Structures are given as structure tokens and as C-alpha cells.
């Protein structure tokens, strides 16, 4: 599928969202993104494994929340809504709003979703959470008088503590009682690193999207006043064997991804 590239998009520089898409086997990426991703895989071989678990978490969390009675979802910093995103595991009676900052991703997404009436896409920076919540798309698709499931996955590492807390607080103030957040936290041991991991983080800095790995305690604190209902390693959330994540997957820095369900 071909996608017209907006003139404002610089396709000569790798983009974090498009690298993520390529890691999942998507097509909304360019050669520069693919080259960057392959180099990252050389530095941190477990990248694909972790990313695929994170996508599996999205599906599992969406299905679980739908079974609890949620019929409207706001998924932030969604990336490309390929066939393995949450709309693929939810019935068409559920209203879904995806969001992303990358115009190429959104342009491609709108093409993919053109015949899917219960799903809409919003081109907005998640840092401008008030703009997202006030947008026509959210007003049309989400009834703020009914509980809403909100996705906040794989994005906190690209935001400052203040930005994460501001988003969490704004969502809390906006959402009705009973609403829930499905969230992932990426962590490593404090002060522990390797040359390869430093180089891996440096590549994200070079793309203009520096990563900040917070501790689990810091992640939980940033998401307050949302209350933690469920929190465990993503592999355990998915019911995977205890030895599914190996010591090698932790890349010498005690890398871990946590899955969380938060409630208002």
C-alpha cells in the first residue's frame, strides 16, 4: 500500500513510531527506519520478543476489559492499527479512538480503517492531552458519562515525569468513575547498564525521541491518582511459562516490562 508523505515529514531521519511498526512486521516505515531497527536488534536482540509481548498485552487487556462491560476505548500513542491491534479482538459494537503524533502513521491508519465504522484516528501529540479529549473525534466516539478504557502503552519512556503525571491527572479528571487505564511500564535496574544498552538508548535520542527508563515505583507514582488494580510482569499477565523470559532477554540490565490495570 502506498502512502502520500506530507511535506513536513522528514523521511531521512528514523522515527520511533515507524521503527516500532517495523518491529511488529508493519509497513508504515521507510528504509531509514528499517536500517535503524535492524541495528537495534543487533544491540538488544530481545527487542522483538518484548515488543510482541507488549502487543499481545494490548489484545489481552482489551478483551478482559470488554468482558467487564467496557464498550468504548481511547488508545493513546497507538502506532499503526494493524490487524493485531485492539480493534481486531473487539466486536464492531465497541467504539475505539486511536491516537498518534506521526502524520505518516495516521495517514496510513486512516486508509486501513476507511471501512471500519466503529474506529477513528486522531492526529495529536499525547502531550497535548487536553486537545485530544476536546477533539471532534473523541466527542463523536466517546461518551464521557460512561466508563471508558484508556490505553497508555509504550509511551511513558518518551515523556518526562511531569508530562506523564499531567496526562494521568488530566485523564483522571476527565474520565467517569469506574474507568480504567491499561498501561505498560518498562524498567531496568537503577544504575545498571552496558555499552550496547547505552548505544541502544542513544539511537532513540538521535531520532528526537529520547528514552527514560523509570523504576517501577516511579511509574506507579506518575500514574496517580489512578489506583493500581493489577500489576505484574507482562509475561505473567499473559500466562506465559516462568522461563519464557530468559536471563539473556534481560540484556544485562535486569530489563523488565510490567503490565498494569489502573482504576478510577
On the 0 to 100 scale, the average pLDDT is: 91
Main beta-sheet strand count, sense and barrel state:
7 strands, mixed
Overall domain count? 1
CATH class call: Alpha Beta
Strand order of the largest sheet: 3-2-1-4-5-7-6
List the topology elements.
Elements: H1 16-23, H2 31-43, H3 47-67, E1 72-76, E2 95-100, H4 103-112, E3 119-123, H5 129-134, H6 136-141, E4 149-152, H7 161-174, E5 180-187, H8 195-206, H9 216-222, E6 227-233, H10 234-237, E7 256-263
Parallel strand pairs: 1-2, 1-4, 2-3, 4-5
Antiparallel strand pairs: 5-7, 6-7
Helix pairs in contact: 1-2
Short structural description:
The chain is of the alpha/beta class and 264 residues long. The protein contains ten helices and seven strands. The chain has one domain: Rossmann fold (3-Layer(aba) Sandwich).
